Amino acid sequence: MSYLVDIDHATKRFLTSAGTAHTAVQDITLQVTAGEFVAVVGPTGCGKSTTLSLVSGLEPPSEGSVRVNGQPVRGIPSGVGYMFQADAMLPWRTVLANVASGPLWQGKPKEQADALARDWVARVGLAGFEDYYMHQLSGGMRKRVALAQTLVNEPSILLMDEPFSALDVQTRALMQNELLDLWSGTSAAVIFVTHDLEEAITLADRVVVMTASPARIKDTFEVHLERPRNVEEIRMTPEFIAIYREVWSSLSDEVAIARKTGASRVA
């Protein structure tokens, strides 16, 4: 089988200020295929975000290998979109200019970049806000801009690091539905890091549970819930509740270990 993302026995160590080595992730093996949505959950600071950094090329593995589209990751691979927890928009640029920046950096003419950006701004429900600046938008609207900015380049791999965690419950549900609607029209592979187990099950085809630091993959759970999904409705179903209990039985042990050891955020 051909994998878009192939992490093979990868370990990542960082040098601490004391000069000692800290192991963030240890012996991670994870494969993701085209069109698959994989959510990664684990205790705070266990190394979930470090896993995304290995795929994106922002950090090289200390051991093992990472391949994207069959090629070893040496630098930032083409076709990868990354949506961070914090906004990555430039505050002095308008909504349209922020979304158009990706196509421009790829070498597209300004007219084409602006046309692509305008289309994606409309797709995320912000038509009419093209000339607004970031400080003029609500938190939910800013996340829509970030989503458009990430998807305008039509990535084959979408890395998402707790992108909706700062939003209120209602806005978060709206953005989750928005993400599913936009992703369903693509063949992109998604790796979605979250602390919210409900969010993970609601969105994903597969939920990966990581151990307390150093992160290893403890369990993987298939989510056999029909698509398309409505995030508010699916959480009420017996199938969802059964999956939640199963995953939580695995995750809760790791959360307890992290609390006992006083794990701090390192990833």
From TrEMBL:
Keywords from the UniProt entry:
ATP-binding, Nucleotide-binding, Transport
Q: Give GO terms: molecular function aspect only.
A: ATP binding; ATP hydrolysis activity
ABC transporter domain mapped to chain residues: 5-237
Q: Does the keyword Kinase apply?
A: no
Q: Does the keyword Transport apply?
A: yes
Q: Which residues cross the membrane?
A: none
- InterPro entries noted in UniProt: AAA+_ATPase, ABC_transporter-like_ATP-bd, ABC_transporter-like_CS, ABC_transporter_ATP-bind, P-loop_NTPase
The UniProt entry, under PANTHER family, shows: ALIPHATIC SULFONATES IMPORT ATP-BINDING PROTEIN SSUB, TAURINE IMPORT ATP-BINDING PROTEIN-RELATED
- The protein depicted here goes by the name NitT/TauT family transport system ATP-binding protein
